Recover the amino acids of this structure.
């Protein structure tokens, strides 16, 4: 028998079993069975779980199958075409690596539903690094990968992992998530220009970072206003 999950009726976030208020929107958590017993003094009616009409596979299983089949057919087709034209595997290796990366980033979380988000971010980074390595090996040039691709993908993975860590522990809410993401996006744009210019100059990334910081400040102001958050149920 599968575990039954509880969700907030206001914002839909998943709740812990002993939660009395929603950690995201502060909406009170009310157990309808407890309320039934409180007002009637009777034992709440049993809610039997029947699997007679349960579907064989839910939409996630079907989506996972379609994604897996599409990526597999795409990778095999590219290999066959490459061999027919060049008599060996060359550019098709990049397509295969891209399909593997796409499956790890999209298909794997659907298959492994209990996979920790932090591990999912780690697997995503490793798959992207694998694709970068395959591209560098195929074109026989790793200078761009070592100079730009690996550092940037690592920085993005660290930022994503940090945000996931905060969200999972209910440290930040919607507007704070957007604000933090905006600041990190500005920081990554600065890092990108520094890597391109060998850490000697900042021009366009400074404007981008300033815009991101301004947008994050506006979001934080909105988040601090209870009137606005309640008005939009945030």
């Amino acid at each position: 028998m599968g575990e039954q999950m509880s969700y907030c009726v206001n914002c839909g976030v998943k709740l812990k079993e002993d939660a009395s208020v929603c950690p995201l929107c502060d909406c009170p958590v009310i157990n309808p069975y407890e309320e039934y017993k409180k007002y009637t003094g009777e034992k709440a009616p049993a809610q039997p779980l029947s699997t007679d009409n349960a579907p064989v596979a839910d939409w996630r299983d079907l989506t996972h199958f379609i994604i897996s089949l599409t990526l597999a057919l795409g990778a095999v087709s590219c290999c066959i075409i490459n061999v027919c034209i060049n008599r060996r595997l060359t550019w098709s290796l990049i397509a295969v690596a891209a399909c593997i990366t796409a499956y790890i980033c999209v298909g794997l979380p659907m298959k492994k539903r209990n996979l920790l988000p932090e591990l999912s971010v780690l697997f995503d980074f490793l798959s992207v690094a694998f694709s970068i390595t395959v591209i560098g090996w195929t074109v026989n040039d790793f200078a761009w990968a070592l100079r730009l691709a690996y550092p940037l993908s690592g920085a993005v993975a660290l930022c994503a992992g940090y945000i996931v860590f905060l969200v999972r522990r209910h440290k930040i809410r919607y507007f704070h998530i957007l604000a933090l993401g905006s600041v990190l996006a500005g920081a990554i744009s600065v890092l990108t220009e520094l890597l391109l210019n060998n850490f000697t100059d900042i021009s366009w990334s400074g404007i981008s970072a300033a815009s991101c910081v301004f947008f994050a400040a506006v979001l934080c102001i909105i988040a601090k206003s209870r009137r606005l958050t309640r008005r939009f149920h945030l």
